[in-house]
Every structure is written in structure tokens, then in C-alpha cells.
Write a structure and sequence with these properties.
heterotrimer, A alpha/beta (245), B alpha/beta (279), C alpha+beta (356), A: 245 residues, alpha/beta, Rossmann fold, 2 domains, 5-stranded parallel sheet, 5 strands, C: 356 residues, alpha+beta, 8-stranded mixed sheet, 4-stranded antiparallel sheet, 12 strands
Chain lengths: 245, 279, 356
């Protein structure tokens, strides 16, 4: 079997996920044994026309993005949305909550006409996404898991349960009990509860578990002393497109 | 049975077995003939299942579709529906796979002796029932009428076409089938499987009905059978759940207090009826 | 003087250990085996950990985050490692170390007893049973906080079943009761050369539980005969967010998931199992996509029936031990005792109606 051709593309994002991949240092050589990396702006310049696997980082926020993502979809067999921005719009999608003109004015001032901008959408809103790697930034172990799975030709594991599960597996002290805010009970796992394990709270960067009880979640946070407004605002940080009211 | 597999296994460790034959049945289903190591015989009952294991891809419960009378190998009909089954579909003759089992409750074939047997098979439900169909055909003199009702969504999903041809040509077997959504070439019955039940003339007190199909099907088939005044005790079902460990531990396959991998997948209807989550 | 007649503490030989003697005893235990005991975790939590210094042991802990089951059914465990290129696999070796579990509460021990039942029923599981070998348990009394309700499920604080020794705190030390022969042996080995104070007057006052189930525990399975279609389940589902904490921290829950993971050399890898729970979204979903317990109400109902009816019908014991973890750690403040009391109320109203 020849090595799959893998490409990475960045759209609207901080490119932190790509940098996170370069942090794989020890494993990079082994990864190159598994796949051929043909397009990766942060690391090299080569370009190839067809790919086996395209990893997409960033959200869709300009007309150019729309064109590019369709072009990439045509040229790749498997498309993987990588990181919160690509999977569900991420932090960028918060701008959708405000009037578009005001946002442009606020960001670009008088140059706003030079920067055409559309409401932020996840990659899946425009093209078929085969697999997702969630998180802000994506977790490197999960990236490796997906890469290995795709090389094996199997569907990667996806985790549609709460961060609480991973927190409890690690026997962490509950950060909500410490009086901190936390979205762990309703946010998707897969990060090995990295934030609560390191004294931080869960910001929900991997999106919400599907089929959640939204009212229950707001009530839960209220019981821990947070207002409904704060609860919803914090849920919107990474899930602006998913939280209604 | 001698040299049967089950006593020699540790709970979670598979027997490395070989795929000796692969046959494409439809776009979604393939039949695999499996040989256990050291000429072991699986020693299963019709209706039982095995856990198929492929390293790196996990495990999946698959019902055995061949009769125990076929030896030493056995057959699995596999729908491409997940990680493991997708990988299995790419495997060729000579490939190795792991097998654990056989597991669960099968059909009590001795209890059925002397009875007419009605098979109600919806879609892939024909695969688990085929082990019992083949068994009763192999021991034909022990059983009364063999009546097979088979329904699929459309003609492209029809399984075991060779066998069906044989069943249709046999005077010893009554076979009726229907498709829900016919294509332009389809000349047979159309409609859901329950439409096949009313026209059949049954000696109700001496008929055993075995029912396997998609979850939605059971309620309606049972209603039809009850419409023919079939007593509960004569009905057997096989139910699908997530039978992950196969040995009554992991919990995924529970229906109320019952582990499907232990007390099922074959249930006597009077028992299944007591389980609120069953049908 | 109060003792539950079942525990028989008052018939047992006992010693007085002051704190220095207790510390010495821990040092002695550490020469005999690996010692596991409650220790501080984080700001205000506790965890059973291997003891490296006796000073780390917290004797008056309310409960640990994870139950003791983590030592017999680890949260994450390799079932086998494989090499798919050669179609080979290796079983995991489970070491047969002697382990002493020290300062364990009665409900925790009873939790292990329930797990023993679940793992020996039907197909006995080697991995669990192997880890259970060579384990010695030393109990300790506890002060019930607002989450404990062990007495309501039939487990007294002084229940010594399966302990070898039992520690009851008294002024400046402990009364140590010899529960079984293993305990007696430990004491005699330890006491060699020391003059241990045997016997003395003692008094243990009954400790009050703040949280109680309204019915005697004998009646609970009967209540569960009648509440399958209760409104209580959907009421709870309004509050529950389905995080699974109650399952994962329950001392008698044992469901698990199994996943394969390969190394960067992708022919090699491991098959691992993880704690799982019936409260989680995908627990009852099959490959075809059908989810047989999609609603939170049906998941809570299933969880509670597993504790008070389904297994109980076979084992004859409640599979809730009253530790209070599911309630204390529930982020949505759902109380298992409140659920049960609501079910009881509905049940008794229903019974009254029937009489009228």
C-alpha cells in the first residue's frame, strides 16, 4: 500500500492547531513513515493536486473561503475538520451574534470595505465532512488517533459524552465544587479532561454533547451561583451556532 | 459435542481463526465462511452469535447463519455498518480474524420437533434465522411444515438468492416473499412483511413462529400472528442490542434486567412480553 | 452502649491503640504488603492511594471520590496487546501482590461484596477475580455527613463483614477489634514484643444519619415493582444533564466499554477497557443507529432499577450501599434519596387509593 497523501489547509483561525501538530516533535518522523505530507503551510511549501486526506483548520468566514473549501473537497478523498473553528465555527462564530456592519466597523474601521466577510460557518455547513477532531486547540493524541485510524482505514472513535466522564476516570476533584465555573457536565469529552486536570475549568471548546438538556444545564449552573446570562454566554463561547435563545 | 470451542476460552480472548470463503450477497452484505483453529467445532445452536474481533478495529457481535449440522466450519453474514464490519468486508480468503463464542440463547430445536415452523424474516433478520432454517431442512423428517416468509425493503437487498431458488423449487418448503419498494423488474408481492401473514393457512396450535427483523417490525408481526390467534407460547423472537462483551458483563445489551447476550438474543415471547424495553 | 446485634463487635477481642501505636501499626502493615488507605486529594477531597508515609493517611475522611473498586476494576485497563501483522496477541499479566486496604468504611466493603457477586455470576471474570486475590481489608468507623444513608439500605456503620480488623476511634486513639483469623494473626505478629492493651471499657454512641429513606430497606424492591411508569422519572430528567458522574463513581456500577488503539507502528496496539455508564448518550446504541434508551428519563429509571430491583431480584441484596457519591458529586444536585422518597410517596398514595 502506498502512503496516503495528506494535506493541511488553514481558514479563519489562529493556526494554533497547526502549531500544536508541530509540537509532536518525537512522533513527527514516525508520522512521516505513515503518510506523505504534501501541503502544510506552517511546515513546507510543496503543493500536490490530489489528496487522500485533507485536514481543514479554521472556519468559513469570507467568500474566498467558500471557493477554496469546495475546491479542496473536490480534490480530496477524505476531509477532516480539525479544531473547534472548523468543526462548529468556534470562537469566530461569536461575531454572528452581533450585527455584521457593527462587527466590521469595530474590527477594520474605515478599511472595512476591503475585507468582505460573511457569517461564520463550520466547514460542514458547506461541504461534506468525513471526520471531526474537536477542541481549541485540538488535542495531539486525538489527532494521532485519527491519523492512525485513517491509515488503517477505520472510522476513528468519536466521543459523544461529557468531559465529566474523563474527569471522573482520573479522579479529579470537581472544579464546580470548588466554586469555579465549568461546562464539563455538558461538553464533549475526548480531551482527557485536560483543563480540569490542571486546575482550570472546562470552557466547552469541543462543543456540546448531542441530545443535551439545555434548560437543565442552565439550571445546574444557576445552582452553582452563575446567572442564566453568564451560563448561556459561556456556552456560546465555542457554540454560538448551536445555542438558540 | 466433542472438541467444542466454548470451554477452552478465557472471557475476552479470541481464537485466531481463518476466513476460508467470502461471497458477496448484496451491496451491503457478504457471507464469510470461518474455520476455527485446530479443526475445532464451534458447537453452536441456531440463533446464537459470536464476537468477531479484528485487532485495531475492535469487536462486533455477529449472528451465525449456518446450521450446526454444517461442520467443521461455520458462516457469518455481515452487513457493512461500522468500523469492524467495514474492515471485514475488505478481507479476503486466508485472512485471520478472532472469534469468541458461541454466545447467548439459541433456538431450542428439540422442543420444536414434530411442529410446523413459521419463519418470519425481515431484512437482515434472515441471516440469524437461516441457521435454524438450514437445521430444520437438514433434519427435515423431524419437523412438520416449513413455512418461510421473507420481506426486504427493495429487491437489491435480497440475501441468499441461491438458497431462495432452492426453497422456491422445493415441495418440502413453503416460501413467500415480498418487497416494500419494488423496482421495475420485480414481479413478486409488494408490501411489508405483515401482508404475507393473513393468507397463510396455519394449524395454530401446532405451529411455532420464529421472528427476526428490524426493531420496528416485531410489534406488527406479533399483532398479525395474534390476529391468527397464535398463542404467545408458540412465538419466539431474536432481538438485537449492543452485545459488546458477549459474556454478561459490560452492560450495553441490557433490556431491563436481562442481558441479551446471555438470555437472548432468542427470547420466548411470553418472556419478552414481560420486558418493557424489549419490543 | 449501642451495637447493632448483627455486627457482634461486643463479642470480639479488642485492643487500644493510641496514635503512636497506630502509626507503628501502619509501618508494620507496610512491611507485610502494599498498603492502600484514604489520603487527601485536592483542596477538600480524598482518594484511596498507596501509602508511602503513614502520616498521609486521613482517618476521619467522609468518603473518597472514586470508590475502592478502582483497585479491582481499574478505570482504564489493557485487556490484551496485539500484533496484527503476525495475528498474535498477549494477555495482560495481572500481578498477584498482597494488598492491605486500610481504614475502609463499611459501605465500601459492602460495595466490593456486591461487585464480587456481579463478577462471579454467570461467567466469572478472571481479571477482576485475580485482582481480588490476596486482599486484606481493615475497616474503620465514620461519621455520617449529609450524603451518607447507608443505614437506610441496611448497612450499619459497624458492619464488619469481610473486614479482618475494625478500627473505632476513641479518645486519643482507636479501639481495634479482631474480626477474623487474618486480623488476629496481624495483631499477634505486630504485638510480638509490645504489650498491647487488651480490652477495656468502651462506649460507642449511635451516630445519627441526616439523610434517610422513608421505608425500611426490605420494602424497597416491592416499591420498585410498582414505579416503572412513574412520573418521577421524567421529573428527574428535567434536571439531569446526563454527565454520567453517578454511574462512574458508584461503588457497584461495573459496566464498561472496550476500544482498540494502535501505536504509530500501526500493526501493534492494545485493546483497552474503560468504565462506562448507562446514563450516557450512546450506551444503548447499536451499529445501525437505533438508540434503545435515548431519553434521560429511561436512563435514570434503568440506573435506579439496577440498584434496587434488577440485580436485587437475583442476589437478594440492594445494590446501592448508601455512600452518597452519586448525590454529592452530581453537578445538578439530584439526590438519589429524594428520588426514592418521591417514588415511595407515589407508591404509598397509590396503595391508599387502592384501599379506598
Amino acid at each position: 500500500m502506498s502512503k496516503p497523501k495528506v494535506a493541511f489547509f488553514d481558514f479563519t483561525s489562529c493556526e494554533g492547531c497547526q502549531l500544536n501538530k508541530l509540537n509532536l516533535e518525537n512522533d513527527l518522523l514516525s508520522i512521516l513513515e505513515l503518510v506523505d505530507i504534501v501541503e502544510f503551510r506552517e511546515a513546507m511549501d510543496d503543493k500536490a493536486d490530489e489528496y487522500d486526506i485533507a485536514f481543514i483548520e479554521g472556519s468559513i468566514s469570507t467568500p474566498t473561503c467558500v471557493e477554496r473549501i469546495h475546491d479542496i473537497r473536490r480534490r480530496t478523498k477524505i476531509l477532516v475538520a480539525l479544531g473547534a473553528c472548523a468543526v462548529n465555527g468556534g470562537i469566530n462564530a461569536m461575531k454572528n451574534l452581533y450585527p455584521a456592519d457593527w462587527v466590521k466597523e469595530e474590527v477594520y474601521g474605515e478599511d472595512k470595505y476591503l475585507f468582505p466577510s460573511i457569517p461564520v460557518q463550520p466547514v460542514s455547513a458547506l461541504v461534506k465532512v468525513d471526520y471531526e477532531i474537536r477542541g481549541c486547540p485540538m488535542s495531539t493524541p486525538e489527532f494521532l488517533h485519527v491519523l492512525k485510524s485513517l491509515v488503517l482505514g477505520r472510522k476513528p472513535e468519536s466521543f459523544d459524552y461529557a468531559v465529566c466522564v474523563e474527569c471522573k476516570l482520573k479522579e479529579n476533584e470537581c472544579v464546580l465544587d470548588k466554586g469555579m465555573f465549568c461546562l464539563g457536565p455538558i461538553s464533549r469529552a475526548g480531551c482527557d479532561a485536560i483543563c480540569p486536570s490542571n486546575g482550570q475549568y472546562c470552557t466547552g471548546c469541543r462543543g456540546l454533547v448531542s441530545n443535551i438538556n439545555e434548560n437543565g444545564a442552565v439550571d445546574m449552573l444557576k445552582q452553582h451561583g452563575f446567572s442564566e446570562k453568564e451560563a448561556l454566554n459561556r456556552m456560546r463561547l465555542y457554540c454560538a451556532n448551536d445555542i438558540e435563545n | 459435542m466433542e472438541n467444542t470451542a466454548i470451554e477452552k476460552q478465557d472471557l475476552y480472548y479470541p481464537m485466531m481463526s481463518e476466513i476460508v470463503k467470502v461471497e458477496t450477497l448484496t451491496n451491503l452484505e457478504k457471507r464469510f465462511e470461518i474455520a476455527l483453529p485446530d479443526n475445532q467445532i464451534l458447537g453452536h445452536l441456531p440463533g446464537q452469535f459470536v464476537e468477531v474481533s479484528i485487532f485495531g478495529y475492535g469487536e462486533a457481535p455477529i449472528s451465525i447463519c449456518s446450521s450446526p449440522t454444517k461442520m467443521p466450519n461455520f458462516d457469518l453474514t455481515v452487513r457493512n455498518a461500522g468500523k469492524l464490519t467495514d474492515k471485514m468486508h475488505s478481507m479476503k480468503e486466508g485472512s485471520k480474524i478472532g472469534i469468541r463464542g458461541p454466545y447467548g440463547n439459541g433456538f431450542d430445536v428439540t422442543k420444536f420437533e414434530g411442529k410446523d415452523i413459521l419463519f418470519v424474516c425481515g431484512g437482515i433478520g434472515l441471516a440469524p434465522l437461516k441457521s435454524l432454517i438450514d437445521y430444520t431442512i437438514a433434519k427435515r423428517q423431524k419437523y412438520g411444515r416449513i413455512i418461510i416468509l421473507y420481506g426486504t425493503k427493495n429487491p437489491s437487498e435480497i440475501l441468499f438468492k441461491e438458497d431462495i431458488k432452492m426453497w422456491q423449487g422445493s415441495k418440502e418448503i413453503e416460501f413467500h416473499m415480498t418487497v416494500d419498494k419494488p423496482d421495475e423488474y420485480w414481479k413478486g408481492n409488494t408490501g411489508v412483511i405483515t401482508t404475507l401473514i393473513p393468507p397463510i393457512d396455519l394449524d395454530i396450535s401446532n405451529t411455532i413462529a420464529t421472528v427476526v427483523g428490524p426493531p420496528i417490525m416485531y410489534k406488527f408481526v406479533i399483532m398479525s400472528l395474534k390476529g391468527k390467534r397464535m398463542p404467545d407460547e408458540n412465538i419466539y423472537l431474536s432481538l438485537e442490542r449492543r452485545m459488546k462483551c458477549g459474556v454478561g458483563k459490560c452492560g450495553h445489551c441490557q433490556i431491563n434486567d436481562t442481558y441479551v447476550c446471555q438470555d437472548g438474543p432468542v427470547f420466548h415471547y411470553p418472556h419478552a412480553k414481560q420486558l418493557e424495553e424489549a419490543i | 452502649m449501642y451495637y447493632d446485634s448483627n455486627t457482634g463487635l461486643n463479642k470480639m477481642k479488642r485492643y487500644y491503640f493510641d496514635q503512636p501505636t497506630t502509626d507503628k501499626f501502619v509501618e508494620f502493615l507496610m512491611t507485610q504488603a502494599e498498603v492502600i488507605a484514604p489520603q487527601k486529594k485536592g483542596d477538600a477531597s480524598y482518594s484511596y492511594e498507596v501509602v508511602t508515609s503513614g502520616k498521609d493517611i486521613v482517618y476521619d475522611y467522609p468518603r473518597t471520590i472514586q470508590p475502592l473498586k478502582k483497585y479491582f476494576l481499574p478505570p482504564r485497563e489493557t485487556l490484551l496487546s496485539f500484533d496484527s501483522k503476525n495475528n498474535e496477541f498477549k494477555k495482560t499479566d495481572i500481578a498477584l501482590n498482597n494488598r492491605i486496604f486500610f481504614a475502609i468504611h463499611s459501605y465500601e466493603m459492602q460495595g466490593i461484596k456486591r461487585l464480587d457477586y456481579s463478577f462471579t455470576q454467570g461467567n466469572p471474570e478472571f481479571n477482576y477475580l485475580q485482582r481480588r486475590e490476596n486482599s486484606i481489608f481493615i475497616g474503620i468507623s465514620f461519621n455520617p455527613d449529609k450524603w451518607h444513608f447507608t443505614k437506610s439500605v441496611g448497612i450499619s456503620i459497624e458492619e464488619v463483614e469481610r473486614f479482618s480488623l475494625y478500627f473505632e476511634p476513641v479518645d486519643n486513639g482507636f479501639l481495634v477489634f479482631e474480626v477474623d483469623d487474618t486480623g488476629k494473626e496481624l495483631i499477634s505478629k505486630f504485638g510480638n514484643g509490645l504489650s498491647l492493651d487488651a480490652s477495656m471499657d468502651f462506649e460507642v454512641r449511635e451516630k445519627e444519619f441526616k439523610t434517610k429513606i422513608k421505608y425500611h430497606y426490605n420494602r424497597l424492591p416491592q416499591v420498585f415493582e410498582h414505579v416503572y411508569n412513574s412520573k418521577v422519572w421524567s421529573d428527574i430528567a428535567q434536571k439531569c444533564v446526563g454527565c454520567g458522574t453517578c454511574n462512574l463513581l458508584c461503588p457497584t456500577c461495573y459496566c464498561f466499554d472496550v476500544r482498540d488503539e494502535v501505536e504509530l507502528e500501526i500493526s501493534k496496539g492494545k485493546r483497552e477497557r474503560f468504565w462506562d455508564g448507562c446514563m450516557l448518550n450512546e450506551f444503548a446504541e447499536v451499529a445501525g443507529g437505533e438508540n434503545f434508551r435515548e431519553k434521560l428519563s429511561s436512563r435514570t429509571r434503568h440506573r435506579l432499577h439496577r440498584k434496587f430491583k434488577y440485580i436485587t431480584d437475583h442476589s437478594g441484596e440492594l445494590h446501592c450501599v448508601g455512600c452518597g457519591r452519586c448525590t454529592k458529586y452530581c453537578p445538578a444536585n439530584i439526590s438519589i434519596v429524594e428520588i426514592i422518597n418521591n417514588l415511595i410517596e407515589e407508591y404509598s398514595d397509590h396503595q391508599k387509593e387502592q384501599i379506598i
